[in-house]
Amino acid sequence: MKNFKNKLQVFFKILICASFSTIQTNIVESKAQMIANVSDATLGIESVGSPSLRVLKLKRTVYVGECPGVRNKPTSGYFVDYETPVQPGYAVVMQNFTRGLNPNKPPTVKKDYDAGRASDKIKFKLSGKSLKSGYLAMQPGVNPIKYQIIDETDRKDKKLIKSGVFMLEVKFDDTVYTRNKEYSSESGSYYCPFW
To answer: If we measure between CA atoms, which residue out of 98, 99, 49 comes closest to residue 77?
Structure first.
């Protein structure tokens, strides 16, 4: 009987510890979500058709039928930080540190942050590598973006105004077309069109 009571006490201790650990984890996760939601309202990427500064919608054409395929299209947006307004001589540098992209030389874009209420236009494109100047490579899902707002008024003495990381989720706005094989009278065979 004593052995049974001891085992029962150990069982209840484990049960209580496991329950407390789950409650503590949920509290930490909900605090992280609250911080993300507060940040969501103050900085990120502003783009057409996006419901949030933390969501970037890329247009995508999806082909179904005998010749299936996908064509991703670039989109554009603007970096905004409502707590740090634009000023003459300011620039913003953004780097994408998403898994799968080169960690030693992450995709980077630098834009002026000196007029209006946002940065100059930034072009975004789905890619696994750094792209030509003006484009920032993205991956599907959540992309951690490191940003730096820099005062370049004095080119010899640049000053860091603000820096941080925000999560930018890449979602797709799909347009679906049926693409079937077409007959070529010249070759006498069927082929998949490239459109």
So the answer is: 49
Nearest CA-CA partner of 138 in 172, 111, 175: 172
Answer yes or no: pTM beyond 0.90: no
Instruction: For domain 44-178, give the fold.
Output: Immunoglobulin-like (2.60.40)
Virtual CA dihedral for 139, 96, 121, 69, nearest 10 degrees? -10
Q: Tens digit of pLDDT for each residue in 138-167? A: 999 999 999 999 999 998 999 999 999 999
Locate the domains of the chain by residue range: 1-40, 44-178
Is the separation of the CB atoms in 45 and 158 below 8 Å?
no
Task: List 111's β-bridge partners, or say none.
Answer: 92
Number of Cβ within a 10 Å radius of residue 79: 26
